[in-house]
Design brief:
Layout (H helix, E strand, L loop, with lengths): L2 E6 L4 H8 L9 E6 L2 H6 L8 E5 L7 H12 L2 E7 L14 H22 L8 E5 L12 H21 L5 E5 L8 H5 L17 H12 L5 E2 L3 H12 L2 H11 L3
Parallel strand pairs: 1-2, 1-4, 2-3, 4-5, 5-6, 6-7
Helix pairs in contact: 1-7, 3-4, 4-5
Length: 256
């Protein structure tokens, strides 16, 4: 039986770095990498130290999880690690985004993550792990990034609850909550044809730092981590202060 890792959103950014540094976390017979861009996935064969199986999928499609379910049923591997890294955000007022954009964030960030976790769990046993990429945005309501923040709040809450359920089977579920990270995320989040909605970024981390931090924290106890001092400070503040005040400070900071 093959021991595999599955990584979504592996064609760029945090997901790509996870794939390329996977050897620092454990040994796998094969790595299944999932994203829409088939060429970028294929190129990972040159930078990932384990055999790579590229799976080109648009996870925002309602039945995309059925493809992975069929592949798992066919090969019956042990999924030693699942990393749900696919996701996107859009920066603008809720009503200025299209319905498709708003629902699309929920479909990819929440529905797809839930579906892939569901179809993968039967192939996991003691010692297996799930890492879900949430966000610092999960800890507070954020006007003008409302749907994205709410979707990441779902990821964090779902991950922590699931960790309790499957922990009895020896399966680890862990949520990574990064702050602003310099990736292609902003290519989709920001509409350069309009005035900038987000005008100030308190901190900007590299995906290499985020992934390295996540690997270290996964070796310790806990069900989530927040990389970076400024990120931790912000989360502490939003836990202590009324969210009405937190939202007002955010809007003043961004001149919204």
């Amino acid at each position: 039986m093959k021991n595999i890792a599955i990584i979504t959103g592996a064609s760029s950014g945090i997901g790509k770095i996870f794939a390329e540094t996977l050897h620092t976390h454990g040994a796998y017979d094969e790595v299944w990498v999932i994203a829409r861009n088939a060429d970028r996935l294929a190129a990972l064969a040159d930078t990932v130290r384990f055999p790579v199986r590229p799976i080109s999928l648009d996870l925002s499609a309602n039945d995309s999880h059925k493809t992975l379910a069929a592949l798992l049923e066919e090969g019956k591997p042990r999924v030693g690690l699942l990393i749900n890294c696919s996701g996107y955000g859009k920066f603008d007022a809720f009503e200025k985004l299209t319905l498709e954009e708003n629902i699309g964030m929920i479909d990819l960030n929440c529905r797809a993550l839930t579906a892939l976790t569901y179809v993968t769990l039967p192939y996991m046993d003691r010692g297996c792990e799930i890492l879900n990429v949430a966000s610092v945005a999960a800890f507070q309501p954020i006007p003008y990034i409302g749907v994205y923040g709410a979707s990441k709040a779902y990821v964090l809450s779902f991950s922590r609850a699931l960790a309790r359920e499957v922990g009895k089977r020896g399966i680890r579920v862990f949520a990574l909550c990064p702050f602003w990270t310099k990736t292609a995320f902003f290519d989709r989040a920001v509409d350069e044809t309009k005035d900038a909605v987000i005008k100030k970024y308190v901190a900007m981390y590299t995906p290499e730092y985020i992934v390295s931090y996540a690997w270290r924290k996964m070796k310790k106890k806990g069900d989530h981590c927040i990389p970076g001092f400024k990120a931790k400070l912000q989360v502490l503040a939003v836990k202590l202060l009324p969210h009405r005040l937190v939202m007002s400070v955010w809007q003043k900071q961004q001149k919204l």
